[in-house]
Design brief:
The complex is a heterotrimer. By secondary structure, chain A is α+β, with helices and mostly antiparallel strands. Chain A is built from two helices and six strands; from the N terminus they run αββαββββ. Classes of the chains: A alpha+beta, B alpha/beta, C alpha/beta. At the A-C interface, α1, β4, β5 and β6 of A face α6, α8 and α16 of C.
């Protein structure tokens, strides 16, 4: 399967050139860019690990691309995403987020059902990967 | 999903075999930056000549790129040597503009730092600091003033060495992303390069900033005053010529910067003189005019006289 | 137009009998509205022979304190304060016989936080007033003091995006079709296919409630099976607007509770349930972490005609106060009414913190929203992937694009239809962010994306010639004109 979180998951994986253009778009808007990684891509896992602090006040994408390269070197077996954060009033939130690195194999999620209260159902989504300890989830 | 990954074709225009030089020169509009440099900076003829040479070199390099004759991205890191107040920072800003117009840096901003911005105080502090600054400078020019302070041979465990290593690596591997300008006194920079040959080999252009002649310092003073809507009276002008001659011989003289400071103090004394006599009507002329007394009250003359005695 | 106050003052004002409205104090051309006044702008079309100023004063009177004759009981009140004051009357450009009446209402005329009370005053009786041929409420300025008495959108655009973990692009939805007749089991299939294919939301239609072919509990159960399956298949948060519209508040609460219990992120109501029910559901939604989708069912009966009724921009303002999170606000290019400039005005009202007066978009007043949450507009009806560049250009990024037919009608099936829409959207956002002129290069961008996506190629082929070009019935009265430099 393919996790389709983020802005561009339905397109072919972005090249570094394409990623650079998106990062520059964020910087030109005055947003801080953040690199995050995880090996638990549950749809409600909000807090991926941060690769350093969000990068504020940069002019050019090159510095972020260098950080991304470093992050890939260390966590290339996991999901890595970039996000642009807008601190202006009325937003103060993420304005764009997209995946820039994936594990080689994406095993996906198991849907667990618990029958309750007659015909009702409780659903739990669980990534197959999290059956293994953190750091060993994608065959690294 | 059904899409297969595809390689996008980079949008590179086909190489050309001939170029209209004048059109190219006008298109990048470096003439206006050079003109600005001439306007803003008095004297500095050898510096301006070097800048023109570098601009021409880069223009040709750009044309060679278009003709697909350029093989590698040129090294553009520079060193600016000279005494304080000789225009190094200003020239760095203009240089960034030229590099930007010619397409050798993408944004054209200047991040100006000293040792304290790059080097940390404890283990693990320096690398993030240096990298942070480098990230901010990407796409522009990193101007490191008094660069030799990065290197402190007397202390083996000095963290400056760590910053130097990171800098050297980025100067080599990310030449397309930023230009580093190292600046400082000529003699100390020379020693710095001797102990750090890695820097010397990565610097493409050395520019030496000579001290200003006395007449140039006077011209600078008059330019600064005009910009602020002041002017010397004839006697004040004479006094300031003498002031320059004396001040130059004293310690901590820093060219244009000393002139700026002197004028600041002169404006203070002028204001004090005006306010001392309240019962009168002031004209524009009164508030614009610097009188000889405003200049002569400077401590510089007293010290000069004491020394001479 | 008479620019002097002709209000009768002193003892004569309260002599028994009939007096013109404009002499009773409802026409005050020198009145300057206070920051705390509610201001309404009406388009007044008097009957032939009726003095326009008198007609407009009558609107002020009938929507506030007046009745057809002088009453002595006025004297027991601070009557001057409670009288609405018409302070400006302009002929409508290019529309002889109609007038714009600006009427100011004192804040004390309204109950805090009640749309029902606000509307009972402003559009209560006056629309049937005989001396008028027609009357339309065009716009309102709601003072900050009044805005602050409302909850506003239960969730708001920012938190909705955070909950859904979807940023930087419009959201995609589809209304399950056919509108009527599917069983719960078949209905859930459509939801699963569309969500798995790439949509963020599916949606019940306005008239899907609890009918013989599908009772509501059945629908909820099968829909949530589809939603959860799709969520596990994609790793994305998915939702379907479960319509809880019902005959009574008790029924609606029961349905909403069940939706929550099943883990739905969003529920839906129809405008026809009424303002009070909408506000009740908005409060419920905030208490229960639920996104609240509003379908504007029925609005065209009073929003569409230019001369009579209530403009949709006013409805949009009321709904932002009332506290829904989504509102259908037009597509510009689709099958339902909406000219680009007017629609732009609606979208601004939903999404901005401040709306400056913009006559060419039909916005007559500066409106401060005082940090009230933003309301997500929804574009639904006759749109398809081939229009993606135009949709993005007209409607921006904070919008739900609903491709019902454009998903379910895809020749290769619902999943393929959903994928086509999502790929078209992502390709367009990518190109826009890269700085390309996506509005003009749109077709090329789509064609390029279709090279690696067969479903998009099919969609572009099937719907390539579908457009809905009809004259709009409700466009702004003011066009931007170039003014010579002075």
């Amino acid at each position: 399967m393919r996790v389709t979180q983020g802005c561009f998951s339905f397109l072919p994986d972005l090249t570094d050139e394409q990623i650079t253009a998106q990062v520059q778009f964020c910087l030109d808007k005055g947003w801080a860019v953040n690199i995050e990684f995880t090996d638990d891509p549950h749809p409600r896992n909000t807090y991926w690990e941060m690769w350093g602090l969000p990068m504020f006040d940069l002019r050019d994408a090159a510095g972020i691309m260098k950080e991304l390269a470093d992050c890939r070197r260390v966590y290339g077996d996991r999901y890595i995403r970039l996000s642009g954060f807008d601190s202006s009033h009325g937003w103060e939130s993420v304005r764009i987020s997209f995946i820039v690195n994936r594990p080689k194999e994406e095993p996906g999620f198991r849907l667990e059902r618990q029958e309750v209260d007659g015909r009702s159902m409780r659903y739990t989504t669980k990534a197959y990967a999290v059956d293994r300890p953190e750091g060993e989830r994608y065959g690294a | 999903m059904t899409q297969a990954a595809i390689q996008p074709v980079p949008d590179q225009p086909a190489p050309v075999s001939a170029i209209d030089l004048r059109k190219e020169f006008e298109a990048v509009d470096i003439a206006s930056v050079l003109a600005q440099l001439d306007r803003e900076l008095i004297g500095l003829v050898p510096v301006k000549t070097r800048i023109r040479e570098i601009a021409s070199l880069l223009l040709v390099e750009r044309i060679r790129q278009k003709m697909a004759l350029a093989t590698t991205f040129p090294t553009l890191h520079m060193s600016f040597t000279g005494n304080p107040g000789t225009g190094k920072t200003t020239v760095a800003m203009r240089m960034a503009g030229i590099l930007h117009r010619l397409g050798f840096v993408r944004r054209g901003h200047v991040i100006s730092v000293t040792r304290d911005d790059l080097v940390g105080q404890y283990i693990g502090h320096t690398a993030p600091k240096t990298k942070e600054i480098l990230k901010k400078a990407m796409g522009g020019v990193l101007f490191i003033d008094e660069a030799y302070y990065l290197y402190r041979p007397e202390n083996e465990r000095d963290y400056g060495q760590e910053a130097i290593e990171i800098l050297l690596q980025v100067m080599e591997s990310q030449r397309e992303d930023l230009v580093v300008i190292l600046a400082g006194y000529g003699d100390r920079m020379e020693k710095f390069f001797q102990s750090n040959p890695g820097f010397r080999s990565r610097i493409a252009h050395h520019i030496d900033f000579p001290d200003y002649a006395e007449s140039e310092l006077m011209a600078i003073a008059e330019l600064m005053l005009t910009e602020q809507n002041y002017r010397f009276s004839a006697e004040a002008r004479e006094a300031f010529i003498r002031y320059i001659a004396v001040r130059k011989t004293q310690p901590l003289f820093s060219n244009a910067r000393s002139i700026r400071n002197a004028l600041d103090r002169i404006r203070l004394r002028q204001a004090n003189r005006i306010v001392a006599k309240l019962d009168r009507t002031l004209t524009c002329d009164d508030v614009m005019s610097i009188e000889a007394g405003d200049v002569l009250a400077s401590r510089v003359f007293a010290e000069g006289a004491a020394k001479g005695a | 137009m008479n620019m002097q106050s002709i209000t009768v003052r002193g003892k004569d004002r309260y002599k028994s009998g009939v007096m013109e409205y404009k002499r009773m104090g409802y026409w005050e051309p020198n009145y300057e509205p206070k920051d705390t006044d509610v201001i309404a702008l009406f388009r007044v079309t008097p009957q032939d022979g009726v003095d326009p100023t008198e007609a407009c004063a009558a609107v002020a009177g009938e929507s506030s304190t007046a009745t057809w004759t002088v009453v002595w009981t006025d004297r027991l009140t601070a009557a001057e304060k409670y009288r609405a004051k018409c302070y400006r009357v302009d002929p409508v450009p290019g529309s002889p016989g109609s007038y714009f009446a600006y009427i100011a209402y004192d804040l004390d005329l309204f109950e805090p936080g009640s749309i029902a009370n606000l509307t009972a005053s402003i559009i209560g009786n006056v629309f049937g007033f005989k001396p008028l041929k027609a009357l339309r409420l065009e716009d309102m300025r709601l003072p900050v003091a009044y805005v602050k008495t409302f909850q506003g959108p239960a969730t708001g655009i920012v938190v909705e995006r955070e909950r859904l973990d979807k940023f930087g692009r419009p959201l995609l939805g589809a209304t399950v079709k056919p509108k009527l007749g599917l069983s719960g089991r078949n209905y859930g299939r459509v939801v699963y296919e569309a969500l798995k294919g790439g949509l963020d939301f599916c949606k019940d239609d306005e008239n899907i409630n609890s009918q013989p072919f599908m009772h509501w509990r059945d629908r909820f159960l099968y829909c949530m099976e589809g939603v959860n399956r799709a969520q596990a298949a994609t790793g994305e948060v998915k939702g379907t607007y479960l319509n809880v519209t019902a005959a009574t508040m008790e029924d609606m609460y029961e349905r909403a509770e069940f939706a929550k219990q099943l883990g739905s992120v969003i529920i839906m109501i129809d405008l026809v349930i009424g303002y009070t029910a909408i506000q009740s559901m908005a409060k419920w939604a905030r208490r229960n972490d639920m996104i609240l989708h509003l379908h504007r069912a029925g609005h065209s009966t009073y929003t569409r005609q230019r001369l009579h009724g209530v403009s949709f921009r006013v409805i949009a303002k009321w709904m932002r106060l009332a506290g829904v999170d989504h509102i259908h606000a037009g597509t510009v290019v689709g099958k339902l009414e909406g000219d680009p400039a007017t629609t732009r005005g609606y979208y601004d009202i939903c999404r901005e913190e401040f709306n400056p007066m913009t006559l060419e978009h039909g916005v007559f007043f500066d409106q401060q929203w005082a940090s009230l949450n933003k309301l997500m507009p929804v574009a639904s009806g006759g749109i398809h992937a081939g229009q993606m560049h135009q949709l993005l250009d007209h409607l921006g990024e904070d919008v739900v694009l609903q491709f019902g037919g454009g998903t379910i009608g895809h020749p290769k099936g619902i999943q393929a239809g959903a994928t086509a829409n999502r790929v078209a959207l992502e390709a367009m956002i990518l190109a826009r962010n890269e700085g390309r002129d996506y509005v003009h290069e749109g077709p090329e961008i789509l064609a390029k994306a279709a090279q690696t996506c067969t479903p998009l190629r099919d969609a572009l082929e099937v719907w390539k010639d579908v457009t809905f070009n009809y004259e709009s019935t409700d466009s702004p009265d003011f066009a931007p004109t170039a003014t010579p430099a002075m």
